[in-house]
Design brief:
Helices cover 75% and strands 0% of the residues.
Length: 120
């Protein structure tokens, strides 16, 4: 696939990744942290929190970068009804969604890292 600014694909897995990966990363982060709390408390595997944060941040930052590429690739206005307008609209939606999910992941990460989890 070609990621040049002018030749961004108007459909396919890259667009779906840019639009949906931030939500999936936040959901993974939430479920993963909820499922390992007892393990971390009982055995002191605090490093699992860092792994969960790293994976969630990496997925969301890649999706955020793709959404920026999509916004730049859309040369027409969002309401133009063209392929470039559609890519720009989806890029703006993905940019907002990924930014919000990045803030949610950060809020959960700070909460988990500040609390005393009984690490050994």
């Amino acid at each position: 696939m070609n990621l040049r600014i002018r030749a961004f694909p108007d459909h396919g897995p890259l667009v779906w990744y840019a639009v949906g990966a931030g939500v999936a990363a936040w959901a993974f982060h939430l479920v993963f942290f909820a499922s390992i709390v007892e393990l971390v408390h009982d055995h002191g595997y605090f490093w699992l929190f860092y792994v969960g944060n790293g994976v969630s941040y990496a997925v969301t930052f890649v999706a955020l970068a793709l959404s920026i590429v999509m916004v730049r690739a859309g040369t027409d206005s969002e309401d133009a009804g063209t392929v470039a307008g559609r890519i720009r609209f989806l890029g703006i939606v993905a940019l907002l969604s990924n930014s919000i999910n990045l803030m949610l992941i950060t809020a959960e990460a700070v909460y988990a890292l500040v609390l005393n989890t009984g690490r050994a």
